[in-house]
């Protein structure tokens, strides 16, 4: 896509550098996204976007330096789609399971990021978000990822604060007009030494110039990884299989796509959680229509997904026998549609209008445990028939006043209505009867109080975006804007009702093993963000670029927590509560082609630095899960079909932590990664080393090492999670 705004703020600086930092080459970035605004016809330019991952055929402009780096091989190096964003300015990742990291943009993460998979949001189907949206698609199925952060156009989505991450699977492949039936396929394999991780993937398609049928399947598994000090980090294993079939039809500027698939996770360990994923099955159907008309374009989508999820204990946390342990089940159905129209009113003016509807139905229940006094004889209903519906409508006007000045104004309304049914605890009585020896049963009193009040809530939310871009010369540009964005609570934030030690500690996606309790009276969060971007570059946008983006966000009714009690071993019990908060920071990125020779090859340097601070204005405490000062520098080389890179990842000490949740501090560290690959014809081979010097380190947002803490007898204070030590990686892709 051609870019008109850097509404993505710091992330758009990744156009020349971030792809390399994320383990991709600059050739994986669409060349059009870095064309100067003044050289493009105003009538055909589009919204701000950065394409972090695109087709490997989307090369940089001639003479830009490095070329393709094997997109398929890069996607095979991780089982976690969120990890593909690592190293982009402003992006950080909450630690979670091996395929389930939660992304944050400019300090705001989890549900505050609007994550779309093939145009549709995926609601949490677990009280610990063990199956977040980006885990719903395998990396080998990803064809494009677009990231918008900070000042985000209203057409990019609502019900979020920090921006939008859109992941698209590969579109149908068609033969050229008049070409005979076209068939193609690809086989890929990958191995990671640390944890003995293995990935295999297969793709195949058959098509003529009108119809297309394709298949994509993958399987990934790994054991527990080892840290740099040689210690095995428990509950980091996983196993996931993904299968999808895509049908496409096109004619005269109109295209229809129908996709269906099944994903299964037999298990996934969670080192920071009290529970593990012991079964997860998700089936989905998506439909999309794209049409071109005299007046503009129309994009309509419909989606349906059902997820059945089970938590229990894997062996690292004690294991479970058939029918035993502590089974906890969730069944979620997501359904909805979106319609977007782009009208070219004139050479200067473009109007975008759209409407969408999103529905989520959630049941979350915990079967009784035989032989347990505390967890029997009834089924515990954490959420019973919870529903969350949202209708969103937007209008957006883009105007190119001159080659130097462009503006974007948009307004959006989202109405969110939620409700849930009556709940019940494991028992309405104290476990040992009503006598003097009776044990306390706070959940019974909580359930009665919850059932006695009304649960229905309706929020009417308004978003506004105003952007301006000024290009005084062909070597500089200034962008500035304001955005008001609103997010309503999710079903767990409002309706998780139990305050007991066990019931509260089963809810919480923060990786801290604390207990969390919902609050039906939560108000929607409202974020007011101002941001500016200064961009300096060579006249051709091919040699070098530097970008600096400072930003400031004031959040009204920020959903933080208040402490309502203590759990054993120093953990705390927390209730979600509204506060006011601020976040401010800056992202700096730079990239340059430093040398190119026909015989020696092309050399490129790139780097990104991120800094963000956050504070709860009511308590004065630091905000939770805020990344400390960090940087990532990359040196790349390419000669013919050979491409290599050296990466240095450095992170400062995390000293600003939230005392309320006992967030641990983490020391500073630096890691070195190497990668190389060679491609000839239809075969590509990749190899590399991650954490070359086998450093022992603690990811600042990794959470706590609860699984290791529990295995050690739950003695002392739980510490931060250990990161993975050195790993040798190798992979091969064959096309046919």
TrEMBL record:
Residues spanned by motif TonB C-terminal box: 719-736
UniProt xrefs under Gene3D superfamilies: TonB-dependent receptor, beta-barrel domain, TonB-dependent receptor, plug domain
Descriptive protein name: TonB-dependent receptor
Membrane-protein topology: Multi-pass membrane protein
UniProt subcellular location: Cell outer membrane
Family to which this protein belongs: Belongs to the TonB-dependent receptor family.
Domain spans labelled TonB-dependent receptor-like beta-barrel: 233-692
Signal peptide: 1-22
GO cellular component: cell outer membrane
């Amino acid at each position: 896509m051609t870019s008109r705004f850097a509404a993505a703020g710091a992330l758009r600086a990744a156009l020349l550098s971030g792809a390399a930092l994320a383990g991709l080459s600059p050739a994986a970035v669409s060349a059009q996204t870095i064309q100067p605004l003044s050289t493009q016809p105003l009538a055909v330019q589009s919204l701000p976007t950065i394409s972090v991952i695109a087709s490997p055929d989307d090369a940089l402009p001639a003479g830009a330096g490095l070329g393709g780096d094997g997109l398929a091989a890069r996607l095979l190096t991780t089982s976690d789609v969120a990890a593909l964003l690592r190293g982009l300015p402003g992006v950080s990742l909450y630690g979670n399971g091996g395929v389930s990291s939660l992304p944050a943009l400019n300090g705001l993460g989890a549900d505050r990021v609007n994550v779309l998979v093939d145009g549709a949001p995926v609601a949490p189907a677990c009280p610990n978000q063990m199956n977040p949206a980006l885990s719903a698609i395998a990396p080998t199925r990803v064809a494009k990822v677009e990231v918008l952060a900070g000042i985000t156009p209203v057409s990019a989505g609502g019900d979020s604060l920090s921006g939008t991450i859109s992941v698209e699977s590969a579109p149908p492949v068609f033969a050229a007009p008049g070409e005979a039936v076209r068939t193609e396929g690809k086989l890929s394999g990958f191995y990671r030494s640390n944890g003995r991780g293995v990935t295999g993937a297969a793709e195949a398609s058959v098509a003529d110039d009108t119809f297309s049928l394709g298949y994509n399947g993958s399987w990934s598994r790994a054991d527990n990884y080892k840290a740099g000090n040689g210690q095995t980090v428990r509950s980091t294993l996983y196993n996931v299989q993904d299968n999808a079939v895509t049908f496409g039809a096109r004619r005269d500027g109109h295209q229809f796509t129908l996709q269906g698939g099944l994903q299964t996770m037999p298990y996934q360990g969670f080192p920071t959680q009290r529970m593990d994923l012991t079964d997860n099955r998700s089936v989905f159907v998506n439909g999309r229509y794209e049409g071109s008309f005299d007046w503009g374009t129309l994009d309509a989508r419909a989606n349906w997904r059902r997820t059945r999820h089970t938590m229990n204990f894997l062996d690292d946390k004690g294991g479970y026998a058939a029918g035993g342990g502590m089974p906890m089940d969730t069944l979620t159905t997501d359904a909805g549609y979106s319609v977007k129209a782009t009208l070219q009113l004139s050479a200067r003016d473009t109007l975008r209008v759209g409407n969408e509807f999103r529905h989520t139905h959630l049941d979350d229940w915990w079967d009784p445990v035989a032989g347990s006094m505390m967890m029997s004889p009834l089924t515990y209903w954490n959420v019973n028939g919870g529903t969350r519906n949202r209708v969103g409508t937007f209008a957006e006007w883009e105007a190119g006043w001159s080659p130097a000045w462009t503006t974007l104004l948009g307004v959006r309304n989202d109405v969110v209505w939620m409700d849930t049914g009556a709940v019940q605890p494991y028992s309405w009585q104290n476990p040992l009867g009503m006598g003097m020896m009776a044990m306390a049963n706070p959940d019974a009193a909580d359930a009665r109080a919850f059932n006695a009040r009304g649960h229905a809530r309706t929020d009417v939310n308004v978003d506004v975006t105003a952007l301006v871009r000024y290009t005084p010369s062909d070597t500089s540009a200034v962008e500035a804007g304001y955005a008001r964005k609103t997010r309503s609570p999710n079903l767990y934030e409002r309706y998780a009702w139990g305050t007991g030690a066990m019931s509260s500690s089963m809810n919480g996606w923060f990786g801290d093993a604390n207990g969390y309790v919902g609050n039906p009276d939560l108000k929607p969060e409202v974020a007011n963000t101002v941001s500016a971007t200064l961009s300096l570059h060579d006249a051709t946008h091919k040699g070098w670029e530097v970008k600096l983006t400072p930003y400031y966000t004031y959040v009204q009714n920020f959903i933080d927590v208040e402490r309502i009690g203590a759990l054993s071993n120093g953990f705390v019990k927390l209730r979600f509560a509204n506060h006011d908060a601020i976040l401010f920071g800056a992202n700096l990125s730079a990239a340059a082609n430093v040398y190119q020779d026909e015989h020696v090859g092309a050399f490129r340097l790139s780097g990104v630095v991120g800094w963000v601070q956050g504070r709860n204005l009511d308590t004065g405490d630091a905000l939770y899960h805020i990344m400390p000062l960090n940087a990532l520098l990359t040196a790349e080389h390419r000669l013919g079909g050979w491409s290599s890179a050296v990466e240095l990842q450095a992170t400062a000490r995390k000293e600003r932590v939230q005392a309320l949740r006992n967030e641990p501090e983490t020391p500073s560290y630096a890691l070195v990664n190497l990668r190389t690959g060679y491609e000839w014809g239809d075969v590509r081979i990749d190899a590399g080393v991650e954490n070359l010097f086998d450093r022992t380190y603690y990811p600042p947002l990794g959470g706590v090492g609860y699984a290791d803490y529990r295995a050690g007898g739950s003695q002392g204070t739980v510490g931060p999670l250990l990161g993975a030590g050195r790993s040798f990686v190798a992979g091969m892709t064959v096309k046919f």
